[in-house]
Amino acid sequence: MTPNVTPASIEPGAAAAGATPLVDIRDLSVHYQQRSGLFARKIDIVAVDRVSLSVERGRTLGLVGATGSGKSTIAQAVVGMVQPTSGTIVVAGHDVSHVQGSERLSLQRLAQVVLQDPYSSLDPRMRVGDIIAEPLTLGRPSVRGSTRARVAARVAELLDLVGLSPTWAERYPHQFSGGQRQRIAIARALAPQPQLIVLDEPTSALDVSVRAQILTLLKRLQAELAVTYLVISHDLTTVAYLASDVAVMHLGRVVEIGPTSSLFRSPRHPYTLELLASAPGAEGHFLRQTLATRPPTAMPPGACRYAYRCTLRSRLGDPDRCLEEDPALTDAGPDHQAACHFSADIDAVIADAEADARA
Question: What does each C-alpha distance from 286 to 13, 42, 305, 307, 337 come to in angstroms?
């Protein structure tokens, strides 16, 4: 039923009782205003809708979901690139929900981001050493003398840490391959010794063999530096390898969250099943039936956002509750939650679907 994805060897979902999470997101909403129509009427676009998440120190939370589900918007809000409409974001005890001006420098020392495209994320006019040094010298008009020597030594240390020669600091980005450029981007992110690194599709632009090297590097760096990761990816194998916990997003909401091993081996939401069944190597029996779908605009107010494309609801006889009550996240196992009224029935429905496929 699920793809050939082997979750990393991890501890159970939550950290020790009473531990304060490094990242604590509460009721986060992000809306965009878009003008449409002849009279340029403003339309409110909801990218993220009342999302609550936390990431424990030294762990990795993976965010997965289809394009437009709100994953990257959450990541951008955490690092101050997007202003929340409502809700709070606390990183290392600091409220970063609405950082402005000089506060951004403090946030950049708490959290850094590695973007998906190593070709466009590095300034082609700057030498690699200056790119990596930039977070260390930000806000200083000039760096001279002993300070300059310390920065150069730190750049050399970081290049060695990510598997590149310190002598390459004088080169330009165009002289490196894609994988090497991503190593440079990771070194730049590590420069100010952040507590959190946001990885936004960190391997999607790389070849398969290079992708494995970068994932191994990220895993090693986390073990050595005790850094915390927030990983956004479409690639379930990437998330399975890096993440200790996974949150599944659909239309701006978290529909399932739990430890990686539990969520991949025993998903409790039909949308998670759809994602797993669509991955390479999955059989996808659960999805092999035609649904009488309607466009999302036809949903009754307060309905489950997944109701009209839900195979689980169809196999249960289209219960009215799905159209009358939008489900909240409820317990579906140890440290495991799902936003589905019928998550307890999902194993039986999967078994029936697979029996039908074999018949």
Answer: 27, 40, 19, 16, 21
- pTM for this entry: 0.85
Q: Do residues 238 and 27 touch, judged by C-beta distance below 8 A?
A: no
How large is the angle between the packed helices 145-161 and 178-190, nearest 10 degrees? 130
Please, are residues 13 and 335 in contact by the beta-carbon 8 Å criterion? yes
Q: How far is CA 263 from CA 219, 248, 313, 317, in A?
A: 20, 9, 20, 25
Domains of the chain with CATH codes: 23-120+193-250 (3.40.50.300), 266-358 (no CATH)
Report the SS3 class of residue 296.
Answer: helix
276 three-state secondary structure: helix
- Structure tokens belonging to residue 306: 């997944």
CA–CA dist 90, 339 (Å, integer): 24
Closest CA to 46 of 79, 76, 91, 86: 86
Question: Could you give the CA distance from residue 75 to residue 113 in angstroms, rounded to a whole number?
Answer: 9
Tokens of 190: 């590590």
Write the DSSP string, 117-134: -TTTSS-TTS-HHHHHHH
CA–CA dist 267, 281 (Å, integer): 17
pLDDT in tens, 159-206: 999 999 999 999 999 999 999 999 999 999 999 999 999 999 988 878
What is the secondary structure of 34-86 as a DSSP string? EEETTTTEEEEEEEEEEEEEEE-TT-EEEEEESTTSSHHHHHHHHTTSS--SE
Output phi, psi for 221, to 5 deg. Answer: -60, -40
Inter-CA distances, 246 with 10, 68, 234, 243, 354, Å = 12, 18, 12, 7, 26
DSSP 155-169: HHHHHHHTT--GGGG
Q: What's the pLDDT tens digit per position in 27-73?
A: 999 998 877 666 667 777 889 999 999 999 999 999 999 888 999 99
What are the backbone dihedrals phi and psi of residue 152, each rounded to the nearest 5 degrees, phi first?
A: -60, -40
